[in-house]
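Lab meeting, item 3. Inverse folding demo.
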């Protein structure tokens, strides 16, 4: 079978806000070498009626990106003016064909990148079920891991994208495997740094700090709960220096906000006065079972530090 230029995997409503989106698969016939990811089929999640550039300009990229913090910080690693925009133009010029069952053979034995642009959580899980069932492996990441609408089955395909230790602990309690971004050494990273990893984390072998030992297509540690390892990869924030600066700027303000919440009580919350009960009323009450409060960081083995 001759491989088409691209395949339309899905055209329907986004699970994030119900707006129409499309999922396109490219790089099916030709090998697409990326220094970090290796040879993988790329999937693009886009709004149906607008190019990625227009969607970002008018705020309609929420359908495919959700409330990802990198969209607001301006630190997203995807340059939408290049591959995403060109892929959308090819779709508008009818260069891609609708998905058919016979196309599954084109995905057999290949590695797939779920969400080269866009969040895989916006797409019904059955779309990933089909192509991943015959593939050799995949990578997938989602920033929507803590949203109510998300399909729990996505944990088998995606890693929870975490940008600090607090998010990491929360995602682990929810049953996710995680891919965490860290700031690196304090001297090299500016306002703060992270020196330690938890007992369940390891440095991403496809990263610069690991001397690029392998590629994502060979590593296969970012396959959600389907990966052979249960440990979680960690990588130092990387990319263009302008994007790194914006990411640090945004994360710095998150730290400040958390410190503010801890240091000061919110004056808008009014404390309710307890009603004093008479002795006769207390007797009528059923026995109260007091649950032990769960500590914020109950996992003492986790060594996450911020250097001010």
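The presenter then showed the designed sequence:
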């Amino acid at each position: 079978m001759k491989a088409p230029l691209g395949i339309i995997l899905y055209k329907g409503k986004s699970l994030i806000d119900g707006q129409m989106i499309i999922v396109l698969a490219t790089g099916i016939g030709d090998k697409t070498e990326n220094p970090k990811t290796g040879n993988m089929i790329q999937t693009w999640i886009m709004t149906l009626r607008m190019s990625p550039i227009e969607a970002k300009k008018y705020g309609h990229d929420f359908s495919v990106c959700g409330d990802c913090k990198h969209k607001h910080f301006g630190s997203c690693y995807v340059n939408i003016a290049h591959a995403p925009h060109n892929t959308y133009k090819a779709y508008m010029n009818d260069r891609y064909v609708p998905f058919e069952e016979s196309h599954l053979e084109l995905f057999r034995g290949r590695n797939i990148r779920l969400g080269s642009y866009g969040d895989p959580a916006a797409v019904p899980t059955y779309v990933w079920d089909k192509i991943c069932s015959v593939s050799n492996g995949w990578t997938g990441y989602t920033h929507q891991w803590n949203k109510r609408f998300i399909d729990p089955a996505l944990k088998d395909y995606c890693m929870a994208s975490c940008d600090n230790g607090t998010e990491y602990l929360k995602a682990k309690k929810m049953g996710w495997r995680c891919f965490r971004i860290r700031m690196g050494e304090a001297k090299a990273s500016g306002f703060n740094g992270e020196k330690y990893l938890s007992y369940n984390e390891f440095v991403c072998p496809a990263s610069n700090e690991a001397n690029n030992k392998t590629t994502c297509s060979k590593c296969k540690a970012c396959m959600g709960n389907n990966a052979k390892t249960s440990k979680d990869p960690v990588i130092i924030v990387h990319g263009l220096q302008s994007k790194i600066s914006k990411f640090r700027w945004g994360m710095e303000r998150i730290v400040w906000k958390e410190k503010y919440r801890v240091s000061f009580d919110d004056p808008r919350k009014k404390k309710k006065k307890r009603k004093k009960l008479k002795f006769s009323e207390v007797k009528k009450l059923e026995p109260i079972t007091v649950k032990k409060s769960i500590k914020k960081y109950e996992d003492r083995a986790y060594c996450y530090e911020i250097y001010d």
